[in-house]
Amino acid sequence: MTTRHLYLARHGAADAFGELTDTGRRQVGLLGERLAGVPVDVVWHSPLPRAAASARELARHLPDVPVIEAAELVDHVPYVPAAAETPPSWAGFFDGYDDAEAASGQRLAEALVARFAKVTGSTVRAPRPTHEVLVTHAYPIAWLVRHALDAPPSRWLGLNSANTALTVIEYRDALPPTIVMFNDMSHLPPDLRWTGFPGGVRP
Q1: Predicted model pTM
Q2: Count of Cβ atoms closer than 10 Å to residue 19 Cβ
Q3: Residue 147: how many CB atoms within 10 A of its CB?
């Protein structure tokens, strides 16, 4: 049975203009060191500059691994919940999203799942397990985790990821997906963890 391993990582910390900061580059370098021991077949990345720059930094630790842009990994709201589905803490977040924007986000979410969330969707053809890194954003990661859990669409809310935290999902034919880990920051020292989250006390 062929297994498709997806290593999902949020881009490194970025500034207000979407450019990687020194902290972000350090985070990506440490993630690269961690993934250097994995037989990575390809690194996919979002078109946005902070993700593309993170993928290039990551590739420094993965010699000869192709780095490819994937439009489906762009930052987007995958599902706009109805009022009854929206937790009180998210009230107001979706103000201003019209039907066209919501439909566009949902189409992107469907394309993301169609391309990456199954074994047969892999573009890496080999009679062995495949290992693919996806450098993307918090919302697409949340959507893929929600999909793997077969949870209600609104459940992507509240699934956040720190910068360069690692989430791993395995896909095998005729079996449900396996979430191996979620938001793992063990490759980061304490001072580089929890960026990308709102401020507050962290464990």
Answers
A1: 0.94
A2: 11
A3: 20
Write a three-state SS string for 130-183. EEEEEEECHHHHHHHHHHHCCCCHHHHCCCCCCCCCEEEEEEECCCCCEEEEEE
Output the pLDDT for position 137: 98
| Distance, CA of 197 to CA of 2 (rounded, Å) | 35
Q: 37: how many CB neighbours lie within 10 A of its CB?
A: 8
Task: Name the pLDDT band for 127 (thresholds 50, 70, 90).
Answer: low
Residues with Cβ < 8 Å from 180, sequence gap 6 or more?
168, 169, 170
Q: Which residues contact 9 (CB under 8 A, 6 or more apart)?
A: 31, 54, 58, 133, 134, 135, 136, 164, 165, 166, 167
Tens digits of residue pLDDT in 30-48: 999 999 999 999 999 999 9
C-alpha to C-alpha distance for 10 and 108, rounded to whole angstroms: 17
Q: 67: buried, middle or exposed (CB in 10 Å: 19+, 13-18, 0-12)?
A: middle
For residue 121, pLDDT beyond 90: no
First to last CA, the chain: 39
d(CA 80, CA 74): 17
* Beta-sheet strand order (sheet of 130-136): 67-69, 42-45, 130-136, 3-10, 166-172, 178-184
